Amino acid sequence: MGMRKHTDEDRGRFADWLRERLPDDITAEEMAGWERNGIATTRALRLAFKSDKGPPFRFITTTPMGATEARPTSACLFNKMWKEEPHGFARWLLQDQPATPPCGLSVLDTRHESSYQEWAIALLQMPPYTSEAELERLLLERRHTLTLPQAEVLVKRADKWAAGDVLALGDPGNFFFTANSVGGISVVNIRCDAQRWEPYLKGFASEHQRRPGCRLIVANLNDAAIHSVASMRKD
What we know:
By secondary structure, this protein is of the alpha+beta class. About 35% of the residues lie in helices and about 20% in strands. It is elongated and about 55 Å long.
């Protein structure tokens, strides 16, 4: 059965909801700014509704990641464990994947429909109007990204015959942020299809809403940040 189309009564309730939450000290200039910035305003409304439903993520586990060596991007995600050679990775990502020191990885499930930038806003605990460039800078600066060799380590650990502690099997897949060739962020989705793994490269700027249940893997997320953004229990 399809989703019910909203009615005039629904719009009225929504307007009342907005009026109740509008800060008393907001200025006319600030309201005009929100009106001019449609993307940020839409994102703010989505995040506000989701905040009423609890934390944006559900905590799954943490796992240690050992040091990894530098490797050419063109040589990554391409062996018998992978379904086919990944497309676009060597073009859009760094020419060489950097070496990484040991770190901890946090595994989170997404609880609401959200875009990649909304994931970043929630993780970084930034306001909804934060620019794409600032989100990318903070993800890189705080070392919340993964490299392709780190992803290969995770896949080698995964049990393809049962749901793993870290990587989920099937749709919607496992996601992580990674550095790209223009100094920004791209998103990688890896999922297991017919006992082999498939990698997909996604644009961070996409406003496409990913459905709940995406597994997000984040490096160097401390305990305080995890407790701030994630439910520590099963829903």
